[in-house]
Design a protein that fits this description.
By secondary structure, the protein is mainly alpha-helical. The chain contains six helices and two strands.
Length: 174
């Protein structure tokens, strides 16, 4: 049985995603971080004071998984909880100084892994791959939103994550 291009594309994306997840998890272990925690820290550095519901929506995380990550990060002093004035139910989270340092160290690990990929493809190949992956990510997110019967709008994810950091004054690799 021949596999069509669409099937092979998604099978390869899945395989690559699992491989990156495995490698990244192993490389972050000495820092006592998991990839999901790195995602949460990234978001909180770029958008301090975000609520758990906003984090869950933006990171596409289930409530229980997010709650465990927030609790773990808070217990280790990497984030802190802020209760809104006048409404004790309104809670936001922000990264602490230790959380920013952990994020910078974690992004260094991510960068090293990315440099390994770039060394195989060259700068131009890496830029092309980055553009294709960005478009693919937006396409899949829109398709997932449509299948879940939620409001479909163009994803606010910037073309490059570094743009998001720069917009928010966070520059880990100056």
């Amino acid at each position: 049985m021949a596999i069509d291009t669409a099937t092979e594309l998604l099978m390869r994306l899945r395989t690559v995603g699992l491989g990156v997840q495995h490698d990244l998890t192993a490389r972050l272990r000495p820092l006592h971080l998991r990839p999901g925690e790195l995602d949460v820290l990234q978001h909180l550095v770029c958008a301090p004071g975000a609520s758990a519901s906003v984090l869950g929506r933006h990171l596409d995380l289930q409530r229980q998984s997010l709650r465990q990550q927030l609790l773990s990060l808070e217990q280790r002093g990497l984030i802190h909880r802020e209760v809104a004035t006048g409404d004790p139910r309104a809670v936001g989270y922000s990264a602490t100084a230790a959380g920013v340092r952990a994020l910078e160290a974690g992004l260094g690990v991510v960068r090293d892994l990315g440099l390994q990929v770039l060394s195989r493809h060259g700068r131009r190949g890496g830029e092309q791959l980055l553009a294709l992956l960005g478009r693919t990510q937006r396409t899949l997110r829109l398709a997932r939103q449509a299948s879940l019967d939620t409001e479909v709008e163009e994803d606010a994810l910037p073309e490059r994550l570094s743009d998001l950091y720069t917009e928010n004054g966070f520059e880990p690799f100056r």
